[in-house]
Each structure stands twice: as structure tokens, then as C-alpha cells.
Amino acid sequence: MSHVMSKETLGALIAPQSVALIGASATEGKLTARPLTFLLRHGFKGRIYPVNPVRETVMGMPAYPTVAAIPEPVDHAYILLDAEPALSALEDCAKAGVKVVSVLADGFAEAGPEGRARQDRLVTIAREAGILLIGPNSTGVVATATGFSCTTNAAFRADRLDTGRLAVLSQSGSVIGTLLSRGQARGIGFSTLISVGNEAGVGVGTLGRLLLEDPETDGFLLFLETIRDPEALADFSREAARRGKPVTAYRIGRSDEGQALSVSHTGAMTGSKQAVSSFLRDIGIREVEQFETLIDAPRALSMIRLPEGRPRSVTVVSTTGGGGAMVVDQISARGIPIVACGAASRAKLSAKDIPLGHGKLVDVTLAGTKYEIMKEVVSTLMADPETGLLVVAIGSSAQFNPELAVRPIVDAVAEAPPGAAPVMAFPLPHAPESLAMLEAGGVPAFRNVETCAETVALFLTPPKIEDPIPVVVPSAVTDLLSGAAPGILDEVSSGDVFEALGARRPAQVVLSPGDAVPETLPFAFPVVVKLVSPDLPHKTEAGAIRVGVANRHALIDVIDQMTASAEKHRPGYRLRGVLIQEMRRGLGEALIGVTRDPLVGPVITVGMGGITTEIYKDTAVRPAPVTLETAREMVAEIKGFALFRGFRGRPKGDLEALAHCVAAVSVIAGCDHVEEAEINPVLIGPEGDGVVLLDALIRRA
Amino acid sequence: MSHVMSKETLGALIAPQSVALIGASATEGKLTARPLTFLLRHGFKGRIYPVNPVRETVMGMPAYPTVAAIPEPVDHAYILLDAEPALSALEDCAKAGVKVVSVLADGFAEAGPEGRARQDRLVTIAREAGILLIGPNSTGVVATATGFSCTTNAAFRADRLDTGRLAVLSQSGSVIGTLLSRGQARGIGFSTLISVGNEAGVGVGTLGRLLLEDPETDGFLLFLETIRDPEALADFSREAARRGKPVTAYRIGRSDEGQALSVSHTGAMTGSKQAVSSFLRDIGIREVEQFETLIDAPRALSMIRLPEGRPRSVTVVSTTGGGGAMVVDQISARGIPIVACGAASRAKLSAKDIPLGHGKLVDVTLAGTKYEIMKEVVSTLMADPETGLLVVAIGSSAQFNPELAVRPIVDAVAEAPPGAAPVMAFPLPHAPESLAMLEAGGVPAFRNVETCAETVALFLTPPKIEDPIPVVVPSAVTDLLSGAAPGILDEVSSGDVFEALGARRPAQVVLSPGDAVPETLPFAFPVVVKLVSPDLPHKTEAGAIRVGVANRHALIDVIDQMTASAEKHRPGYRLRGVLIQEMRRGLGEALIGVTRDPLVGPVITVGMGGITTEIYKDTAVRPAPVTLETAREMVAEIKGFALFRGFRGRPKGDLEALAHCVAAVSVIAGCDHVEEAEINPVLIGPEGDGVVLLDALIRRA
Questions:
Q1: Could you give the percent of chain B with pLDDT greater than 90?
Q2: Between the CA atoms of B410, B415, B419 and B421, what dihedral angle is there, to the nearest 10 degrees?
């Protein structure tokens, strides 16, 4: 969209010179009176034009009958009318050249076919006029730097509106209020807060991309119920990563009930939880488990950095044994290595008679909570090259003596040389004063041990941002697929496609119906025989597959038996050929599947197949296609593949070949007319022997 | 212990008439000066006697050179001296007839062999004198009703010490301060807070049992790093359950690092995480995941009850769509069913023009947040017999208009008839006033959606308290075991024991070395043959097992080959016999194991064996022995047994017989001299065909 990159649009979005409130009520307390109330309360610096055809004035301001009657160009309009009148108002905005329009009304895509048609009309009007359309179903736009609180959200009744450097983009309007309230209570303000509503015009991705140009914004909080614009979201988050502006998301839908609600609540689609999570991770968005982490983590991530060369580990310092153990336990449970005080630091501190306890926790309890000791310990560990991230768990002194336990941390950080280890802190008691002191001093601090640990894990395992892989589908593949009929390709054709992609299959001979069995085969007996037919989806039941056929004589007999059996099973079935394959043995099997997720598009799944996939959900999922590196990661994630990693002295399987196969096959995601492709099973040979696909299918759209 | 049930001891513990502070410092601010400072600050009602041989007075109070010099009997003493002097002081207390003594010093069991010996001396002195000994390594005892803040914990520097109806027992002294500080900030006071230290004399279980007699205490919070007194803990928690006083625990040790720290920090042992969790659940202790739940849940659980007959489900009412969806998502993700507004209630509310939204969330957003509407909705749903627990998610109005959104909930609860559905609430914004209003009105309220959801799950899935099963080991089993030598029993003897317990094994014949193969066997060929020998632990490698032996002739040959192969594998091995078994086939296999956990004693494990047990940890663990009902639960927990529950049209396996076998075999836990027993595999036959043990071993102590 052309307006995305426009500075002018960005200005009209968050720092408009003029705003029209179309349908502003004059009755204080009414929903549609709120934007005006809040704009006045929070000192909006631009000009406000209430539009209300039946009133002369609204809250003492002159009212205008239409947008056209406003005496200057309007940058931003918020339409507060019901759905149908909102359409006319948008037309008026289009004529008047308004740049950005938010729409409050519901009754659009979430309201059945009629609503969807109405939404289409809304989008068409906006698109033709080049309007940046927010909503419908949007509680509005807030930009704190300009006091632009153009919102119906009751939370903006707050006496003050703190500025800040984090932007909020939320698919739930009400959750914006929650974030504002909880954030401000923690001393966290925001730069911009946008309720994206139905995202009919622009969504989270496009708005995020636009806000990346806002110098007031250092990071992003997303509250997601669905994903409507995966490409735009990917563009935004990859660019955000490039600029070092972290994007953190909380997502509804960890349960089926939650997913169902998102669907009914927003008219959105539902995708696979695993596919969506892998998509978000892939494009560099950090998904959080706990709601409070959505508030805590973004500030922490934009406050400190891990200097290059420092290890991705944590050293925990504590003035309280039990509390320190709790912090270690929680961080370690999230897979982050805990590292004890290094030998050099230990020697240095011991020389100053500072006892550090035993084990991995640096426990200074016995030294007593004294300013000099705390500062010495923190400074020493920050300077130690063996320290990754330093986490300080502070006991009761955080409540009663911040000067003894908290001030030294802040001072140590202030005086630290460049490249020192970064510090986070967790006061055990209820200690708002200490939290504020720490955060003012550049030390991310947490109210809960779990959000502390989750943020630590996010900080030390940053997303790997990969640019989207240019998909080059081999022309042989395109040729094969374009020749195929819609529906399921038979296994010979499916195998041809996978082979053209670079996968190996067993040596094979295909006989046309009626062909005689050749005198010799290009591979040894025993062999596997399958009837190729679109009418026999269940080969075993139809007697249409035989393994271990020992010689040519038996092969001839077997083919006769099989065709007879298939005819009996499914009279009049269409026989397309007889597939004879060399019989391969391996150490075990895997499955590879490519599907299209309704939310995030093509994804590839790797698993071991059988119960490990279905019962234990032991699968790895990624947006497809994948690089070889990602394919290796996927293979490494499958717990069941332990069987091929030398489990209990068994021979190792060729998992490297499997990763190559996964990467090669994943390219099929680039063929738009392939709806689904699966290799099940892939036979895994011993290390060095490679993998071969035993059965494969492709469904063409 | 006789003093456990003594009212006198309880009085001396939490409401002493007189307390001696042995080693009290006169220097304000010093650790050992704190108990006196805090007792004075919080208005202790009894008499205080500082014991300090080098001072005339301590903080203006007369000091005594020894306990003996105190002019009245002393109920409670806190010894603030170092380890060695503490021993002498305890002897003085013994002579002076002090009833309860807490000891601050470290340098005992956590400090190597010397410390352990010192601890033994401490315990002996206390035991002989009938003293209730708390610690060592204890920061003391606090009872709020009497202002008895006899503690070194800095958190009691707080200006006020709220009373309350929950007792805290903590293995970490410092965490008591955290709980006090966070609890008081949430309006939650405590009745008693005890730092149990090393639990050398009495531990959590014994103290909990004693505090059950305190009418001021309605529930318990435990902070655990280990378990030192499983029997006493079980007695306490079962009795607490009988009296309706919930016991909630937070445990360090979800990670290996956390476990390691607990060990080094407290000198405690480490047990299997799964065994300890199952033990706690079994005895009725609710283990929480999040630290804040340890504070939130006990009050909620002692505040409301689910009336008999109400379903164990949740109905969520919300004034905010996104916030309500978040609550539904979190509760549902914990496996609790979400139920929509019932038809009758919907009709009643619709008749009053109150829109409820669609889907399972009762979303009153559109109705606007009005007192009458909120009260009508909450009252109607509370009265509806289809409602289990009602959870109300309150939007911005909780912050700005508690009168509109929170007051009606409290009023509805106050006016509800007996048997109405209970209510919990979660305000989305930062709203301390609303939290306080709700809780004052008897509505448990939460600051975080995750602690709300976790508490909901604890509330609706109360522990099933089973009295310990009287273990009756069949005399045949005892006879077999007492006749056996220490070490591993051979498989014939192990099989004999399991058979005597009631497990089935295949029909078998055991030949003594040199016996001829009989003309006929009491079962049909093919058969399985195994050499019985203490020297061949790995039968397959030694060639000491053969399956599928087809007839007598082959059997004779096979035995010759096997003995030769075994002799070659392990020259001079001792042959004890030849085991010939009928060859059984089943649908699959399971394993059953009984082991002794170092912390919680005998536990039984059920799994499918192979990679599902080792890689996916797909096992069920319980304290052993188990009832048939518990055995069925265990079998139902194993995901992999889906294979025997009709997975993809497969025949069903006899899981009921497996449960019977588990219950029967579990009785072996009652044989003290059995260290470990395992059946691996148990063959699972088709439904109705039972299960048979194929291989078994028992290790005798």
C-alpha cells in the first residue's frame, strides 16, 4: 500500500493537525462523547471538529453538520455512527480528502453475510479514496506524545496519560484499557495504542510497519486473537528486527474454547496453534505465555542488550537463599543455563571477605545486606567476562532499605564500563519503591518470579530472523503439476514430483495395464508390488499391495491375484498401472507433510509418524519452505528421533539426509495449486545411507 | 510424639505467656536484636526475658544471665547463639523446663558430617527433655493474634502485622518475609508463620498437625524445598482435609538446578519430581505452579465452597470481550469445562432486554456496565442450577466505577440464597480498590489471569483424600521373600512372588540343571526357553533365551546350544535351571515398577515401556500400594495406551485386567526388604483375555 510509507499518513495517524469526531454525542458519559472528553482531558494539541447535524455545539465547541462543512482539511476522522450511516460518513470523508479514518461500529465481517458485504463496501470506498482505514469495530487511536486520545475506551478516563516508547496494536479494544491501566501502574507508558478492530483496511502488520517510522516508538506489544495479514505482519516484524525494535505478542487461543471465542467474537478464522506459533517465531515475533510478561518484557528488551561475546547464560545473585533458589529454579526450568560465580570473581570477592555460599547461586545472605558489599558483588560480576545476564533476587531489604540493597545495583550499573554484563532484578517482597528505583536506573525489574524468568528466556533466546526464502520451484515440478488433474495425484505421479524436487525413492518399474512382466528387473528381488488406481485409496484392504515378492514367477502370480482381489473389493475400479519397487529396509520411519494453514499459509510438518505423532504430538512445524538449517532444527526437535541418535546403543540413522529431504520437499509450498503434500513414510537408513520415500501423495487444488 | 496433641504445647508455641530470647543483642539493627524489637513493635502480650550474660539490660529491659535465672517458668525460648553455644543453651532450657525452643544457628545437618553429629546432639537433648524443637536454621515463630513476632526475619519490621486465618510453614526462612509482605499488600494476613529450618526436631507435618488445633487457622500455605517427614505430613494433611482446612504448597525443584540448590542449601535429599508431586496430591496437598497462587488460592479456597450437586464447570461473565476471552482461554487450557449461560437464564435475561453475546462467554459489553444489569446477570446465573462456578471478568469500570461493576457482584453474593453458585472475579485493569471491595464481600479476586485460572482449577478439582490402604502382604509372599538371599532374585523366584501377589504368568515348567526334558509339557508348542542364572543378566547377549521353539526335539537341541553359548559368553556361570514357558501373544506391552523414593518412600510406576516411557515420560506414578480405583486412574493417564482403547479401529486391550494387576502387585511396597520390583513387560491381551507378566525382577535389600 502506497500510503504505508508516507510520512504524511503517519502524521495524520498519530499527530494530526485536525480531527473530526463524526457522530460525537453532546451527552457526557455516552460512549460517543468519550473521544472528545478524552482529547480535551489529555491536552490534544490539534484542532477538534465535532460533526453532529442536529446540534449547534457539542460540549461547548461548535458542531458541524458534515465533514465537508469543516473549514480546513481534516487529517483524521473517527466515525462514531452505526454501521450503515458510517458508510455514508466514510463517503463524505473521501470527498473531503480525509487521510486517516477510524470506524467504531460493529455489524461488519463478524455479523454474517450481510455484514461481510457491508465491510466490502467500506473497504472499497477507503481504497478508492486512498484513505487509511482503521476498523471497523475499532475503539480508536491514541498517541500520547500529542495527547491524541481519540478513543471510546473507558480506560482513558485516567487522570494522566503517560508517554512512553512502546506501541500497542490490539485486536481487542478493551484489552488496550487493561494494558494502559496496568502499564501506567508499573510506570510503563506507551507511545501509540491502536485498536485495529476488524482490520478491514489495514491490520496489525501494516500499522506496525507505519509506526516503525515513528521515532517515539522503540518496541511493540501485540494482542492477537487471529492473524489476518500474515505477509504484512512478516514484513513489519522482520523490519522491526532489523531496526532492533522488539515485537512481543500475547495470543488468545491456547485452548479450543479460546479459539472458538476468537472466531465468534471477531468473525476471524482459526488456524493451527502450532502453525501460528511457528509462524510468529519465524518472522521474529516473541510470543509470551503470561499476560504480565506482555507488559514487562517489551520494556526490558528495549532497555538492555547482551553485549557481543557474552554467553547466553544467567548468574543469579541473591540476598535470600529461598528466594534465590526460586529464581534459579524458574529460569532453569525454561532451559536457560545457570552459571555460578566465575573463579576469578570468586577469588576477588573472597579476598574482600565476602562469602558467596555454595552451589550455583551467588548467595550473599551471610555477608548481610550492605551497600558496599552489594555494589562490589554486582560490579565484579558485571565486569566478569564469564557472566552472561546477571539477575539479582533481593530480599526484605527491597521493602525496607532500598538504599542498602537496590541503590548499589543501580549505582553499579551506572558506573559499569561498556560491554559489562546486563542486569535484571526481582525483589521478593511487595516493593513498589524498589521497582521504580531499579527501572529508573535502567535495570528491568519484575513483580513476579515467573514473568522475570520468562523475560530472561526471551532476552537470551532472541528470534533468528531469516529473510523469506526465494522459492524456486524446479521447472520439471511445475510441468508435472500443471499436467495433473485436480484432486489426489496417484502415487507414481506424486513420487515423480517429489523426485523432481530432489527426494529419493526406491528403484521402480511401472507396468501399464496389460503389460507383461519383463524378463529382468533393474533391481533385485524381493520386491514390493502395488496397483496404481484412483479408486483404491485403501490398498491393504483392497489387496492391492504386496511386499516381499521373492521372484519373477511369484510376481506374475501375485499381480493376477491382486487385480482379482481389487476387482472383487471394488468392481469396475480403474487400473492405471502396476508399480514394482525394490524392497528397502531401514532403521525406522518419519513423515513429512506440507499443508496450508488458513491463517498463516503453507507450513511443513516433520514427525516420526504413528502414535508418536498422533498421541504425543511429537512434531515440528515451520512456515514452508525451509532452509537446510531450519530443517535440521526441526529434525533435532523430534524427541522420538532419539531412536536414531544412538538410543541405548542402537545404530544411528541418517537424520542429516532426512533434513536435506525436508528442505528439498518444502519447496513444494511454492506451488500455489498444491493444497497438500505428504510423504508417509520416509524410510530412514543407517547414517550415510540416506532416506527414501516409501509412500507419497499430493493433492492438487 | 506425645506433645503434638497437647494444648499446652500449642499454647507455648503460638500464645506463650513468657518468652526467653537467648543471646539477644542490645545493639539495635543487629540480627539477634530483631526478635525483641519486633515483639515490642507488634505488641506481644506475654512477658519477654532477654538472656544475655554480659549485659544488665537489653533495650531497657532487665537481662538475665541464664534461662535458669528467669523468675517464672518459660513457655518458649528462641536461641540466637552460634551452633555450639546453642547446644549448651538448649541444655539450660531443658533444665528450666522450657516447652518450645526455636534455634536460629546454622552449622548443623547442612554442614557436613560434623554438623550432622551436632544436630543429633541437639535432637537428643530436646527429645529427652520433651521440648518441641524448631530448627535449627529457623528464623523463628510468629503468631499474629498474640503479637508474638519472635523472629529474625527483617520483613517483620513492617509497621503493622495483620492478623489472618492462614498459617504459613516454610522451609525457607526468607520466603516467610516475602509471603508476609505480598500477603499484607493484598489484604491477606496470617495466623501463624513458622520457619521450620532443618526440621531436626519437628517438621512441617508435625507442626501442621499441631496448628490444626488452633481455632484461628482455617488453611495452610507450605513452602517446600524437600520433604523430611512424609508420614507426619500425610497425617497432617489428611486430617486437615477432614476438617475442611485446605493445604496449599509451592515447591522448589521443577528444574534440576533448583533441586540441586535445595540439596546444597538445606542439606536435604532429592527425590523424583513426579514421585513427590504424586505423593503430595495423594495426601491431599494442592501443589501450585505460580508463586502468587500460593498467596491467592488458600484464601479463595477457604472463602467459598461449591454446594453439593453443582457441576464442576465454569461460566464466565464479562464486561469486556477480549478480557473475557482471555479468562475463558486460560481456564479452559487447564482442562476445566466452560459452560454457556443456561437456556432458562438466557430466556429470563433476554426478557429483560439484556444481550448476552454469542458463544460460551456471557458477554454483557453491549448492555453497558450498569449496576442493575450486572446484578441481574450475576444473581440469575448464581441461582441457575446449571452454573458451577461463576467467574466475572470486569473491564475498565473496575478501575473507575467499582459502584457500577463491582458493587452489584458483591450485593448479588450477599443476597444469594443458600446453595447458590459461588463467584470469583478478575478485574482486567489495575484496580486495587475493586479487589478490596470484592474480597471484603466474600468474592475471591485476582490480580493475574493465570493465578485466577490456576485457583479455579484447584477449586474445581479438589484432592481425593484416601486413607492409607492397610497393607496385607499375603503370607506366601512373605515366606518366599524371607527365604531369598539379598540382591536380585532370579526370574523364577521373582515370578513366584508376583504370582503369590495375584499376577498371572504364562504356564511354565522349570527343569533343574541336568533334568531331562519331559515327554510332554502341560502346554502346547511353540515355547519360550530361558536359562535361569544369577550370572547372566543380559540373556539375549548370552544366548540364554529362545522364543518360538517348535517341538520337543528342537527343545532338547536348543537347551544344549544355549548352555554352550552361555558357557562361552560367561565361563563358569552358575546354571540354576531351565525355564520353559508357553509362548503368549498379546496386543502390546506395559511395564509396572515399584521403587523407593528417597523422600516419599515406595511408589509405583506404570507405563507402556520402550521409548514412550523413556523419551516421552509417559508414565503414571503414585505412592504404593494403590487401590484398584487408583490403578484404573493410572492406566487411564497413560497416553500411549490409546493403542489399546480402540485407536484407529484396532482391537481393544484388557486394560481393566492391567489395573487389577497393578493394584495386586503394588502390595509388594509393604515388604520392607524389597528395594525394587519390576514387571517388564506385562503382555496385554485382547479385552477379556487378561494380562500376563513375561519378565519380572525383584531386588531384595
A1: 83
A2: -30
Minimum-distance CB partner of A177 among B171, B254, B395:
B395
Q: Which residues contact A425 (CB under 8 A, 6 or more apart)?
A: A391, A392, A393, A394, A406, A409, A438, A443, A444, A445, A446
Q: Where are the domains of chain B?
A: 7-252+285-297, 316-443, 507-582, 588-700
Rounded to the nearest angstrom, the minimum Cα separation between B125 and chain A is 28
Mean pLDDT of B599-623: 89
- Is the fold of A7-252+285-297 the same as that of A316-443? yes
The CATH code that applies to domain B507-582 is 3.30.1490.20
* Least confident segment among A106-115, A299-308, A459-468, B259-268: B259-268
Contact list in B for residue A291 (CB cut-off 8 A) is: 326, 448-450
> By CA distance, what is B180's nearest residue in A?
A429
pLDDT per residue as tens digits for the range A114-162: 999 999 999 999 999 999 999 999 999 999 999 999 999 999 999 999 9
How big is chain A, counted in residues? 701
Task: Give CA–CA dist A428/A399, Å, rounded.
Answer: 9
Q: Which of A323, A333, A643 has the CB atom closest to B174's CB atom?
A: A323
pLDDT at B43: 96
ipTM: 0.93
Going by C-alpha positions, the residue among A5, A338, A4, A52 that lies closest to residue B261 is: A338
From A507's Cα to the closest Cα of chain B, the distance in A is 31
- Tell me whether residues A396 and B255 touch, CB distance under 8 A: no
pLDDT reported for residue B240: 96
User: Quick check: A292 and B618 CB within 8 A?
Assistant: no
The mean per-residue pLDDT over the stretch B593-610 comes to 92
Measure B175 CA to nearest chain A CA, in Å.
Answer: 6
Count the neighbouring beta carbons within 10 Å of the beta carbon of residue B532.
21
**pTM for the whole thing?**
0.93
Strands A192-195 and A166-170: parallel
Contacts of A225 in chain B (CB under 8 A): 322, 325
What mean pLDDT do residues A549-559 have? Answer: 95
Taking only the tens place, the pLDDT of each residue in A578-628 is 999 999 989 999 999 999 998 999 999 999 987 788 888 899 999 999 999
Given a contact cutoff of 8 angstroms between Cβ atoms, the answer to whether B434 and B427 are in contact is: yes
pLDDT at residue A268, as a whole number = 54
Q: Tell me: domain A7-252+285-297, CATH 3.40.50.720, correct?
A: yes
pLDDT range class, residue A4, cuts 50, 70, 90? very low
Provide the β-strand partners of residue A102: A78, A134
Q: How far does B528 lie from chain A, in Å, by closest CA?
A: 25
Rounded percentage of chain A residues whose pLDDT exceeds 90? 83
* Cβ–Cβ gap A329/B255 under 8 Å: yes
Say what the pLDDT of residue B1 is: 42
Please answer whether residues A95 and A66 qualify as being in contact, where contact means their C-beta atoms are separated by less than 8 angstroms.
no
B177/A358 touch (CB, cutoff 8 Å), yes or no: no
Nearest to B329 among A257, A400, A431 (CB): A257
Nearest-CA distance B181 → chain A (Å)? 5
CATH architecture of the region B588-700:
2-Layer Sandwich (3.30)
Judge: B262–A325 Cβ closer than 8 Å, yes or no.
yes
**Partner-chain contact A322 B395, CB within 8 Å:** no
Instruction: Give strand pairing partners of B531.
Output: B578
Partner residue facing A254 (CB), from B173, B256, B333:
B333
What is the distance between the alpha carbons of residues A448 and A645, in angstroms, rounded to a whole number? 39
How many angstroms separate the CA atoms of A184 and A181, rounded? 5
In the numeric block, which cell numbers belong to residue B29?
539493627
| Residue listed under C-alpha cell 532477654 | B50
Instruction: For the domain made up of B316-443, give the CATH fold.
Output: Rossmann fold (3.40.50)
